[in-house]
Amino acid sequence: MATLFENYEQQYSALTADITAQIGLLTASASKDRRQLISTIERHVEEAKELLEQMDLEVREIETSKKQRCKTKLECYRAELKRLTLEYIKARAVKQESLYDSTEDVDLRVSIDQKQRLLDNAETLERSGRKLNDGYRVVIETEELGNQVMRNLSEQRETIQRSRNRLRETDEELNRSSRILSSMLMRVMQQKAILYAVGVSFIIFISLGIYISFSR
Fold this sequence. Notes:
By secondary structure, the protein is an all-alpha fold. It is 89% helix and 0% strand. It is rod-shaped and about 155 Å long.
């Protein structure tokens, strides 16, 4: 069954796909369609931010073995949303510049320096995203290695447990054999005592017979 975090991931993926498609439409759209596209994109960006906040809260409740992996994925999603936001700003700015003096959105025109800074920030975010992806791969590999070590330790523990059980069974067999030997030794001693008693009685009877014979 999918976890709540995974459900948020699916919703986030759908939202970012919509944002990407709408940014493409914004770049090629006419002025009359821009207001609706801008409104839709900004609404979806806000929804994506809210999803990221919900995912951040959910990560705190996830078990320790999966928490680091989810944190890394969350950082990747944040970097992706920042990248999409910058793409939206660039698409909106480019169209506004071409329509300057002929549209209602004159006040939203972005300067060349601002666009260059946005491009630089976008490149920085892309590099950060690649680093996060590399870190995510390292986390996955580390998790797989940890799982393999845990499996090996589990197998070794089972082997030790089986050896301990065999030793316990051997000890019980030795105790049982010791009791049998003790019982046999007791019987031998009892038989010797009986033989000694019979021998002594026999000697007494013979001596008594000899004594009676000579007394007559």
